[in-house]
UniProtKB/TrEMBL annotation:
UniProt keyword list: Cell inner membrane, Cell membrane, Hydrolase, Manganese, Membrane, Metal-binding
Protein's name according to its UniProt entry: Ser/Thr protein phosphatase family protein, UDP-2,3-diacylglucosamine hydrolase homolog
Domain of life: Bacteria
Organism lineage: Bacteria, Pseudomonadati, Bacteroidota, Flavobacteriia, Flavobacteriales
Record-level GO cellular component terms: membrane
Domain Calcineurin-like phosphoesterase: 8-139
GO molecular function: metal ion binding; UDP-2,3-diacylglucosamine hydrolase activity
EC number: 3.6.1.-
GO BP annotations, alphabetical order: lipid A biosynthetic process
Record has S-adenosyl-L-methionine as a keyword: no
Natural source organism: Formosa agariphila (strain DSM 15362 / KCTC 12365 / LMG 23005 / KMM 3901 / M-2Alg 35-1)
Broad enzyme group: hydrolase
A family per Pfam: Metallophos
C-alpha cells in the first residue's frame, strides 16, 4: 500500500490463500489492482502471470483438504523455527524440514515436474514468451520447449523458506535470493558490459528520478 501511495502501480495476483480477496478480482483502487491472472508485454514479449493453484486438483475439488494442508504447512514451519533456534544456539547451519520432505519424496518431485510441464505447455499453446507463477515454492528459471515452440518458465519460490523473488530489469529476469544477494546491485559489472548505451541511460534516469522524488518529499516534510 505504501508503494501504491507513492505512485507505483501494484498488481496483486491472488492465490489459494486469498479466497476472500478473489471476490474482489478485477477491482482497482487508485494504483492498486486485484487480479487472478495478468498478461502484459515486456519489451515486445508476452508475459503470463498467475499463482498456479489452478493446476492443483486438491484445491479445486476439495477446498477443505487444501485448507488442512495449509494449516499443516504452517504448523511444520512453526516446528522448523524452533528446531532452527536450537541449531543456531549450537552454532550449526539452519535446516528446512519441508524442503527436505518435498525434495526427498518421489510423489512431490513428480508433482513439481508435472506442474512445470502443464504450465509451460499451456503457455506455448497460447503463444506466451514467459510464464510466471509461484504456488509450489520452488524458485526456478528455465527454458521449456516442445514440438510447438518454447517459453521461459519462472517461479518466484517464496519469502518464508527460500527468501526468493523474481525481478525483471534491463530486459532480463533474475531470481533474487536474499540469503545470497542481500543488497547487492541487480547486475554485476560483466552484465553491464553487455548492455547498450540506451538501456544504461534509461536505468540511470530511473534511479535519478527516484532519488529526486525522495529529496522532494524530505524537503516538503522539513517545511
Amino acid at each position: 500500500m505504501d508503494m501504491a501511495s507513492d505512485g507505483v502501480e501494484v498488481i496483486y495476483i491472488t492465490g489459494n490463500h486469498d479466497e476472500m480477496l478473489r471476490r474482489f478480482s478485477e477491482s482497482t483502487i487508485g494504483n492498486f489492482s486485484i487480479v487472478d491472472k495478468y498478461v502484459t508485454e515486456l519489451n515486445g514479449k508476452t508475459a503470463w502471470f498467475f499463482h498456479g493453484d489452478i493446476f492443483d486438483v486438491s484445491i479445486q475439488n476439495a477446498k477443505w483438504l487444501a485448507k488442512l494442508g495449509g494449516y499443516g504447512y504452517d504448523f511444520l514451519i512453526l516446528i522448523n523455527q524452533m528446531v532452527n533456534w536450537g541449531l543456531d544456539k549450537m552454532g550449526k547451519e539452519k535446516y528446512s524440514i519441508s524442503k527436505r520432505i518435498k525434495n526427498g519424496v518421489k510423489g512431490a518431485v513428480k508433482y513439481i515436474n508435472d506442474f512445470e510441464d502443464v504450465a509451460t505447455d499451456l503457455a506455448i499453446e497460447q503463444g506466451y514468451d514467459y510464464v510466471i507463477c509461484g504456488h509450489i515454492h520452488q524458485p526456478k528459471m528455465l527454458i521449456k520447449e516442445n514440438k510447438y515452440g518454447k517459453t521461459m518458465y519462472l517461479n518466484s519460490g517464496d519469502w518464508v523458506e527460500n527468501f526468493t523473488a523474481l525481478e525483471y530489469q534491463f530486459k532480463r529476469w533474475k531470481i533474487y535470493n536474499y540469503n545470497h544477494d542481500k543488497l547487492s546491485p541487480f547486475f554485476v559489472d560483466e552484465d553491464l558490459k553487455g548492455m547498450n548505451m540506451q538501456d544504461l541511460i534509461a536505468a540511470i534516469t530511473i534511479v535519478d528520478k527516484k532519488k529526486k522524488k525522495k529529496k522532494d518529499k524530505k524537503a516538503k516534510k522539513s517545511e
